[in-house]
Amino acid sequence: MQNSAKAMDVFEFQMIGIITGITDRSRMPYLYSVVEHKALMAFAYGMTRRTYGQSAMAFNLDLQKRMLAHLGDQPEVTVSLLAFVQKCIFTSNSVALLGPHFDIDIFDEFMKFDEGIPMILRRIPILNHPGIQGRESVVVKLSEYIQRRWRDEDGGYLEGASDVISAVVRELKAADMTHMELVRLLNGFLWGSHSNHMRTTFWVMAYILTDKDAFSRINTEIRTALADKFYDIDAFLNMDPVTLDGPDFNLLTSTVTEVLRLTALPASFREVLQDTIIAGDNGESLYLQKGEFVTADVRGMHFDSDIYDDPETFKADRFLDNQGIYKYPNEKTFAVFGGGSHVV
After folding, report:
1. What is the pLDDT of residue 260?
2. What are the backbone dihedrals phi and psi of residue 210, each rounded to the nearest 5 degrees, phi first?
């Protein structure tokens, strides 16, 4: 598409108020600009492979502790996979990002918010109340935490929290916004982090546990790596994430990629700012008129048999080459995280 940056723009800033509970609609364009150009950049930088080590190791160690706590002295227990994943991921993610002093007992309130998001986005009266109430309870706790733990020295940081969250709060504080606007925007960040992490982990575990062959092969791959390279589970959990990106977990990495292909459904709309013509694959021209909205059929692409063989079937090794080495899929046909200059 020619001059795409000038021909398209996002309108997702309208959703910020609905999700966060910020009611002054006149503030949305400015707050969206701060989130996109400042806070998101700080968050993205803190989540790169080079800088993610602090949060990842804290998450791994806390998650191990919580998973083992479910077993206690029993050789085995029966749990709901969804509830187990949600509680473990939320608490460990909170500890890794916000620090051990944050009140993780707000899990139930967070889940009301998360489960109520569809009703909140659709602004359905009465049915959206539980989600809104959950969100407001989380906002109160988060507000108290920031007021109690923020330190102004050394450029400003959130005591006990990860560097990435301190960086995000620092950017929000530097902008022209109120304390509650800051808190509500940060809650939106955390909701996205918790929700995406919980859902991805659940589906990865569900697919592995219901595919005996994949489970056996991944189990062998992990045990072999632990024995040959990482010595024991404690050494493994304390490893920098960059170390784990080597060839030791090719099948597991392919499995996660395959699950994302099957389950992820990113949605990002663009508003047409001027009449535009796009050349289609079949040679025909697509005419987009100013004021129309455009989105990509990502799920259709991920299930296109011209791109992926037998696309509706889970194949743990789909993204391995003939030597068993993981190959990241073509970004033009694999878009589980969206794309473009205005990703929300």
Report:
1. 96
2. -100, 0
Instruction: Return the bridge partners of 277, or none.
Output: 287
Burial of 36 (0-12, 13-18, 19+ CB in 10 A): middle
Give pairs for 133-136: CB < 8 Å, separation 24+. 133/109, 134/108, 134/109, 134/110, 135/21, 135/187, 136/21
Q: From CA 38, how far away is CA 320, in angstroms rounded?
A: 37
- Between strands 150-151 and 157-158, the pairing is antiparallel
Beta-strand relationship, 157-158 and 276-279? unpaired
Residues 6+ apart with CB under 8 A from 254: 316, 317, 318, 319, 320, 326
> Could you tell me where the DSSP H helices lie in the chain?
4-7, 13-20, 28-34, 40-46, 53-71, 81-98, 107-122, 129-149, 163-174, 179-209, 212-225, 233-237, 250-263, 298-302
Beta bridge partners of 272: 8
pLDDT tens, 155-201? 999 999 999 999 999 999 999 999 999 999 999 989 999 999 999 99
- SS3 (DSSP) at 334: coil
Q: What is the largest CA-CA distance in the chain?
A: 67
Task: Say how far apart CA 131 and CA 112 lie, in whole Å.
Answer: 5
Chain mean pLDDT for the chain: 87
Strand partners, 158: 150
The answer, yes or no, to whether residue 55 has pLDDT greater than 70, is yes
User: What radius of gyration, in Å, describes the C-alpha atoms of the chain?
Assistant: 22
Per-residue pLDDT, 4: 43
Taking the C-alpha atoms of residue 143 and residue 186, their distance in angstroms, rounded to an integer, is: 10
pLDDT of residue 12: 56
- Backbone φ and ψ of 160, nearest 5°: 90, -15
Q: How many CA atoms lie within 13 A of 137 on its CB side?
A: 18
Cα separation, 224 vs 245, whole angstroms = 16
